[in-house]
């Protein structure tokens, strides 16, 4: 909860930058209460082994610059999670997203004992595709009209990485 204000600051400053890649959000999302609620949901998800949310911090000064999450965790024969992430625009292109994705994959396999991590990206989001490729994800296909982003059903490229 101590990071709620920093997350809110990132969300507010990057609202226009993030919007083409996110669902349309209610105004409550851009309030401290909204961010505290998201954190509470994340904590509950971790307690139920359904999702794990992590802050992305700079080593040099512990500044919060983004978030990465493993969600929709399926156990049993699947052992899969979906990954999503965002980085403050002023830190884009500096390797932080790639490092965060790589570290999150390591946690997924070594600590959470997952077998597969999947990420979906709109084909025009070339920087995010490059992040996944650099982190070792393979392209598996195209999901047509997969997610409703910024008010429109968007195709997404599906990427995945497995423990082996």
Taken as a percent bin, the fraction of beta residues is 25-35%
Low-confidence stretches: none
Number of helices: 5
Give the C-level CATH assignment: Alpha Beta
Report how far apart the termini are.
Answer: 35 Å
The CATH superfamily name is Gcn5-related N-acetyltransferase (GNAT)
Structural class: alpha+beta
Neighbour order of strands in the largest sheet: 1-2-3-4-6-5
- Main sheet record: 6 strands, mixed
Protein name: Alanine acetyltransferase
Keywords: Acyltransferase, Transferase
Family: Belongs to the acetyltransferase family. RimJ subfamily.
GO molecular function: protein-N-terminal-alanine acetyltransferase activity
Describe what you observe in this structure.
It holds the Pfam family Acetyltransf_3. Keywords: Acyltransferase, Transferase. The protein is built from 5 helices and 6 strands; from the N terminus they run αααβββαβαββ. By secondary structure, it is α+β, with helices and mostly antiparallel strands. It has a single domain, classed as Gcn5-related N-acetyltransferase (GNAT) (Aminopeptidase, 3-Layer(aba) Sandwich), CATH 3.40.630.30. Strands 1-2-3-4-6-5 form a 6-stranded mixed β-sheet, sandwiched between helices. The model has no long low-confidence stretch (mean pLDDT 97).
């Amino acid at each position: 909860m101590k990071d709620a204000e920093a997350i809110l600051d990132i969300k507010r400053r990057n609202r226009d930058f993030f919007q083409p890649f996110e669902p349309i959000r209610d105004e409550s999302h851009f309030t401290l209460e909204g961010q505290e609620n998201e954190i509470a949901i994340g904590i509950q998800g971790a307690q139920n082994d359904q999702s794990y949310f992590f802050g992305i911090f700079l080593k040099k000064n512990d500044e919060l610059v983004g978030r990465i999450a493993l969600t929709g965790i399926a156990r049993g024969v699947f052992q899969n999670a979906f990954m999503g992430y965002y980085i403050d625009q002023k830190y884009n292109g500096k390797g932080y997203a790639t490092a965060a994705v790589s570290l999150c994959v390591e946690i997924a396999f070594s600590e959470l004992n997952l077998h597969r991590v999947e990420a979906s990206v709109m084909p025009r989001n070339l920087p995010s595709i490059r992040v996944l490729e650099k982190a070792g994800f393979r392209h598996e296909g195209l999901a047509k009209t997969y997610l409703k982003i910024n008010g429109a059903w968007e195709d997404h490229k599906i990427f995945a990485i497995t423990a082996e």
